[in-house]
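Lab notebook, bench 4. Continuing the backlog of folding jobs that were queued last week. Each job is logged with the same field layout so the records can be merged later without manual cleanup. Today's entry covers Ultraviolet sensitive opsin, a 381-residue chain. Filled in by technician R.K.

JOB TYPE: sequence-to-structure
TARGET: Ultraviolet sensitive opsin
LENGTH: 381
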Amino acid sequence: MILLNSTISDIHPLPRIMDNSGGTRLLGWNIPPEELVHIPEHWLVYPEPEASIHYLLAILYTAFFIMSLVGNGLVLWIFSAAKSLRTPSNMFVVNLAFCDFIMMAKAPIFIYNAFNRGFAAGHIGCQVFAFIGSLSGIGAGMTNACIAYDRYTTISNPLEGKLTMIKALVMISCLWTYTIPWAVLPLLEVWGRFVPEGYLTSCSFDYFMDTFDNRMFVAVIFTFSYVIPMTMIIYFYSQIVSHVISHEKALKEQAKKMNVESLRSNANQGQSAEIRIAKAAITICFLYVASWTPYAVMAIIGSFGDASLLTPGVTMIPAVTCKLVACLDPWVYAISHPRYRIELQKRLPWLAIKEENETASTNTGHTNVTQTNSPADGAHG
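JOB STATUS: finished
OUTPUT FIELD FOLLOWS
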């Protein structure tokens, strides 16, 4: 690579401009010469975007920053403070909220870069941004896989599959042991490296360096940070849906043998169990696929495909989708949690959350069972 093999004196002074476009500035025009060696040459041939695009992205990231810190901050606070929510399964929800929290805690670096229209935070800021991004991104993916496993074992084997606190702690420890090396190796440049990308306002691992070691790193991290958790999530949730459908089918067959309409006391109220589970599974899988697949595909194209497809504008889209999921996760995993809503209602009554108390709900359920079963009991009597 020309820039990597050049000395500082070989790099032309600022500003960098296009010779054939009437003095149009290129990306990196406002970067000191000593910082240019940290930027892949791929980006330095593109014209700088309009200032309004930088400012729009800065405003978008500011909104993401506020949404994520408030949403995930509430999850961390409520799930940690409420004794009723300190369950082994909820430890994964807390871990996911922590990953999403730190994912967007680094947003001020991007916002600062965007308002300064480039690589303003420098090499150190880039390393911090990419290191936290790797930790939180891979950590969140593996936490999603652990949540899928926990739900699968709980539903498929409710008696013996219940998670214990020790098992949850061991799984979380293994999760971080699995995640940390993929952030430390490129940070120390032992294998791979962290570099700016897109409009040079965000940073990630280098998927453009044309060496065997770097291509191997991209292939391996693609497998371990995307393929493995994705496979686990799809497998466990598909098994949950299959199990619930089979269970519902068995209940219907048993009801037919007993000559009753349904064995469920509330069969005609609300949606059936398999539809509710299927919707939750599809939502979770879609959220993960939609947010991380574009980034994974982009990395593979950069290393093994036609890199000219990856313009700065195109590569900013996957970067935004990865941040968006950090804002949506607390809504998918926690806001719909009845106990969480009750605890939130207790601590922040001004939010005007209307959640029925579990005791009242249980009493209502018992009433429905009695009313439904009484005629049948009388008929059999």
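OBSERVATION: Confidence is low (pLDDT under 50) at residues 1-15, 267-271, 359-381.
SIGNED: R.K.
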